[in-house]
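WP5 quarterly update. Target: DMT family transporter. Source organism: Cyclobacterium jeungdonense. Length: 297 aa.
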Amino acid sequence: MKRTTLIIAAGFVLLWNSGFIGAVYGLPYTGPFTLVFWRYLALTLVIVLYLLLRQRFRWVGWKVASPHMLIGILAHGLWLTCVLLALDNQVPAGIVALIVALQPLATGALSGLVVAGEQANSYQWLGLVLGFFGVVLTVAFRIDFGSYTSVFGYLIPLGSVIGMTAASLIQRRMEVKKESKKLPVDLALFYQSLATTLTLALPAIFIEKLSTRWEPEFIYALIWLIFAVSLGAYVLMWLLIERIEATRVASLFYLGPPVTMLMAWLAFGDMVQPMDIAGLAIVFVGVFLSQVNTKNP
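Structure tokens (predicted):
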């Protein structure tokens, strides 16, 4: 990579994974559903203002908007809610990042189910199995099987994996099959953000009553999550996609667990245990195998 591309890549990795840390800072002041709701309500308003100023705000019709809104519900709403529920149940941020790192592996292995000609090879399936084993190994040594809360906390990030994998496969099918009109990035993000806001409004209002302590620490965390993570990291990701192959951009998500573990150690003193390192190493082996380009069955 060129120096500029490396800087953009480093910025993306840091900003994206800082979302786990920002969420931990915000959760003491509100519930998981409400935090996602406030974040995406504000993000939607910011994008609307931007689109209005650029004279690009428009309704594209349900046929075009609906798949983008579904992607938003899965890739933003379900993904983030499950992450926050896990963090709210005292699962360390680095471990949550390790579990959700299964998503690119799962997407690569399952892409053949929705796109003909993209069948996963044996190395990719082996990589997925190894990655899953690495996560299970790490979680098994941390989970308290006698506590329902602990079991729930460590299992719920799998919902994030399911949500983001489904969204990625839908997006991939749209691009290959051209079943829906492709929208500009900013307009697509608007519909994704709007759908996430509307979906999270229900549990935020009826379950958590929108209970929020509007203290400075919460406001700072919310601002960071909106502008640095939801906008900053998203913009940097698309800048990278313009410069390098999408698969190389996707590989940057595998840096999430170690980077988040380091951030969590610096911010909260979360200690990395030996089995965390072992599980992380196994996941990286799985990642390496998943990148092997071979036609072997």
